[in-house]
């Protein structure tokens, strides 16, 4: 993966052609329908979103998420430098541990959500594909000169998710990269370690975006096809596209950047206060703290909530949430839940209307759909703790 190739349209204006993933041919050989997403051509589905969704809930789904940005931050004082930009407690993160965090702007708006792993001598960040170039620019602008930022653009990223993921990955016989490092079975949710697979280095974390047990595997681009083939050759594993990844994360109550999160949202309204530790709330010192900390203590004007709708019609992003004809919120994600067999949605609504059990109405395509505020996740997480 490299910088965008630049083309010109008929008027001579520059245009950015979509990039291809290292597994592009592999996906197409398996009948994937490819679409442009986050600047890349990516598989949206193979045999159908519903079938792929339910397969992942019952077996193991293999997702190619190589469009995401993989970054290394290193140097003396790297934890403190990251804490100036992220509200997470990075200095307390022990080697081999992973943490969800946020990249904030000066006003507390969310520039991206990301994962941070302490790899011992450096911090490994996974950022969203659609924002990674802006994230890299932001980090390079604000990190001190003595801190090194390395973009691992020659690496791919696979996610193996589902109740049979551990068994499937275990069959490959991964070996710890160093003596004394944990074995694959030792990893619990939000823990990570380096491994070798047939002499090939892998970075493995027990994490994911589906609410299921599973792993994310950082692998060199030259090795990713062999790894994908070895996993997909197992009866319990099937390749899964973007469509099911979206419905799975929605059921799990996980926000999607660019939809449920944006610079117009903040950690308090997004219900992501858990990502800001007690120490960081007390000390502040991160970008946007002057806005975010009062919102956490006093409460935001709007909150991200889960909605279950009556009937079969799904609400879509941008639909208004109303009470007695007055707009009180907006839907940011919505769809039909394959697991629950009912439509579900996420929305930002006025805090006075955010309590569990509050009846609301969604205006969708000229129709009014009855909905109710419910706790998230919609489908219980099954992480390996």
Q: How many β-strand runs? A: 23
CATH-defined architecture of the domain at 6-66 and 154-251: 2-Layer Sandwich
Let me know the average pLDDT.
Answer: 95
Name of the CATH first level of the domain at 6-66 and 154-251: Alpha Beta
Question: How large is the radius of gyration?
Answer: 21 Å
Structural class comes to alpha+beta
Distance between the termini: 34 Å
Task: Summarize the model shown.
With 385 residues, the chain is α+β, with helices and mostly antiparallel strands. It is built from nine helices and 23 strands. The relative contact order is 0.14.
What does this structure look like?
- The chain is of the alpha+beta class and about 375 residues long.
- Among the domains are: about 5-65 and about 155-250, Gyrase A, domain 2; about 300-380 and about 380-385, Aminomethyltransferase beta-barrel domains (Elongation Factor Tu (Ef-tu), domain 3), CATH 2.40.30.110.
- The chain contains nine helices and 23 strands.
- The protein has a seven-stranded mixed beta sheet.
- Strand 22 (about 360-365) and strand 23 (about 365-375) form a beta hairpin.
- Helix 2 (about 50-60) packs across helix 7 (about 240-250).
- It is globular.
- The protein starts with 5 loop residues before the first strand and ends in an 11-residue tail after the last strand.
- It is an enzyme of class 2 (transferase).
- It holds the Pfam family GCV_T.
- It catalyses: N(6)-[(R)-S(8)-aminomethyldihydrolipoyl]-L-lysyl-[protein] + (6S)-5,6,7,8-tetrahydrofolate = N(6)-[(R)-dihydrolipoyl]-L-lysyl-[protein] + (6R)-5,10-methylene-5,6,7,8-tetrahydrofolate + NH4(+).
- This is aminomethyltransferase.
- Belongs to the GcvT family.
